[in-house]
Write the structure tokens for this entry.
Amino acid sequence: MWLIVGLGNPGEEYAKTRHNIGFQCVNELARRYDLDFGKKIAKSRVAEGQIAGQRAALAKPFTYMNVIGQAVVSLSQWYKIAPAQELLIVYDELDLPFGTLRLRERGSAGTHNGMKSVVGQLGSQVFPRLRIGIGQGPPGRDAASYVLGRFTREEQAQIPEIVARAADAAEVVLREGLIAAMNRFNSPEKKQSE
């Protein structure tokens, strides 16, 4: 059983922000497998079913980012999963160039408040995560306003392809394992002109 949690903030005003790209990824997985977020479990909207041949639950917590770890812990307990082997957190990453994907099996929370909450509540840094690069934005711009802002028109045009690649990466994690997915998706991205 896999639990895939997209990080984001609830509400329409946040739906298209950089901070909610994790939600967009789990939405894409739900669309691909015809799953519905009809259940409410542990302060989250949940879609259950088969993904890439594995039993899985997709979750979009409706807590705010700074306390999202409470929902992740409750979901992990509800599904009786071992986070180090069966949890995948999908979220935006300021410290990666826009559109870059990075899978890791462990690591610090960095500057991401949602991940700080998850690590703090789980009491461990050992769980798989898929980071989706959103870039750092213009120099001098406040990080909070940047992540809570919407993508530029040029960025927005690329979001469907980036979200599709992130969903592909999650499928490979479930089908072939984290190492295979890391080998396939952690390679540097080619420039758009190539």
